[in-house]
Structure of Lipoyl synthase:
Amino acid sequence: MVTLVDNTNKARPRHPEKANRPDTEVLRKPSWIRVKAPGSKGYGETRKIVKDNDIVTVCEEAGCPNIGECWDKKHATMMIMGEICTRACAFCNVRTGLPTALDPKEPMNVANTVKTLGLKHVVITSVDRDDLADGGAQHFVEVIQAVREVSPSTTIEILTPDFLRKDGALEKVVAAKPDVFNHNLETVPSNYLTVRPGARYFHSIRLLQKVKEIDPTMFTKSGIMVGLGEERNEVLQLMDDLRVANVDFLTIGQYLQPTKKHHKVDRFVTPDEFKAFERIAYTKGFLMVSSSPLTRSSHHAGDDFEKLRKAREAKLG
């Protein structure tokens, strides 16, 4: 159980629930996972557009290593419903605490930002909002509708919370017809108690399965991090679980420890191991797989969506 705290005082810690945890060693990153610090002209332009429209991005809040590359191309991932999460996952760098009220202007702010950035494909995610009766489902719907109105040619990928104990929430979001429905498992089930204690592995699997039952034409997607102490056979079993749920697209990336108070990196998985996971995942029937040390849910999402569509067309003949 996570104790929520009032985060209105900016002097308070970003992760109060982790303050008393023992420090863990932050391992030195290997050469294959280092990236250049952001600072290009395109990065600066994207940053200004995001700030001018009062947009929160998961790129910044989660400390994504790909922010320099993506923002240089004006590819920003929107994070709706504020910057404070009601959960306290051991891997995550997003703030934990009591969230603020939903901003009624946010759907149109997101839509205008999508148009200004010229996004052909946008990824929209959110913090967990366990404090809301529907977990924020209606807000997702309003954001999707606003983007459709302002930028009708933009394809929409959503990365949602699990809507745990929020009856009817999933159905509401699927009815809004995003092009891709993504919900990340994050890790193998044996790690849930320590890595993702507020979530339930088989609930997340069932959520993805229900999306397909409601709308068989909707693309579904999920992702995990490796390097959290999982065993190889656990990753392969997770792939099978996702295929039983008829998930189309799997992403696998390296876990990177945000601070010494977060879950430790057990090891850095080699590029060759990521390639092996990719080959196995394709043999299990995924239409699209992205597996590399720097893979993240929204990294190259637009290009990957085009590949996903073509893969389905080829499968259907």
User: Anything to note?
Assistant: The chain has one domain: 37-316. The longest helix spans residues 301-316. Residues 187 and 224 are 5 Å apart (CA to CA). Confidence is low (pLDDT under 50) at residues 5-9.
